[in-house]
Amino acid sequence: MTDYPAPVRPDRRADLAAGLARVQARIADACVQAGRDRSEVTMIAVTKTYPAGDVVALAGLGVTDVGENRDQEAAPKAAEVAAAGVDVRWHFIGQLQRNKARSVVRYADVVHSVDSVRLARALDAAATGRDRPLDALVQVSIDGDPARGGALPDSADPDRGLGAVAEALAGAGAVRLAGLMAVAPLGWEPERAFARLAEVAAGFRAVHPEAVALSAGMSGDLEQAVAYGATHVRVGSALLGMRPTLR
Ligand SMILES: *Cc1c(COP(=O)(O)O)cnc(C)c1O
After folding, report:
1. Which atom of ligand 1 is nearest to the CA of 113?
2. Distance between CA atoms of 16 and 206, rounded to whole angstroms?
3. I want to staple 219 with a disulfide (CB 3.0 to 4.6 A). Which of 4, 62, 95, 238 is the partner?
4. For the domain 10-240, what is the CATH superfamily, name and number?
5. Does pLDDT of 247 surpass 70?
6. 60 alpha carbon – ligand 1 mean position (Å)
């Protein structure tokens, strides 16, 4: 049984509308500053920790793309939103365990966090038989720290090297290699992080010219990400409010 989401209260709806207007204005300004067309940047509303009712309300305000980072939370939320008859594109943006691939491909339209050949293969196997292709982005490590998430640029590692992960997705039958994703490392200036990402993306596109998506930028650094070519910004707290716990 899937719960039907309770409608949000009018004051919550007003808060979401105000947050959305502020974020849309920031993105529009960033596009003007960067000399880019507003249509080149998609805003993903990151709804982690917030209920399905907020997703339904955001969809009612025109939001088309929603991001989640944990399968345990996202799977029931996506089911509730679907039960309300609301259609949004679900982006899975969090670290993904291979044993969750089967669950994630049931609701996700895009997975942003593919950072190993083994995960690429697990997703491809899980997505086989889907009625529409699953888009996948390779998550890139900007600082090259192998202890944290992200495929490693300039590495020949057969499982974690960016080239190997991209090849695995490009050769997959049920998954489409769509581009790259990154998170600015803690302690790095956003400009420095996204300049490095743009450099990695240029090299990547020379090999995979069709994979043009660049998912970068969050509430605190979306302007810098747009300046360096982001096509998708992932915005949570600036839109929905501060989350109770950092994750
Ligand atoms: C939570 C999260 C975001 C959104 O972060 P905010 O700072 O709240 O905008 C973006 N990307 C990823 C991968 C996240 O986990």
Report:
1. 13
2. 40
3. 238
4. Alanine racemase (3.20.20.10)
5. no
6. 22
